[in-house]
Design brief:
Helix content is 58%, strand content 0%. The protein is mainly α. Helix 1 packs across helix 3. The longest helix is centred in the N-terminal third of the chain and has 18 residues. It is elongated. The mean pLDDT is 78.
Length: 74
Amino acid sequence: RGNKGKEVAYRYNDDLQTCKSIAKENTNSLIEFTKVSYNWYIRPQLLWLPDKAEYSYKDLVKQCLQQRGHSVLK
């Protein structure tokens, strides 16, 4: 959706605001603590569990934008 049509800038701004709100809703101190605990203490002991949980606000926004079809520099 990011690179299609004439409204690329409009879609980007809309998607950026949506991704920021999603990342803000999914990050707080309690959630961040549980994600860090999961990634560093629980997951290494149980290798069959799913991949690492993303716990950085910036990384969540980048991942959201990439999934919406926008190119993001790392």
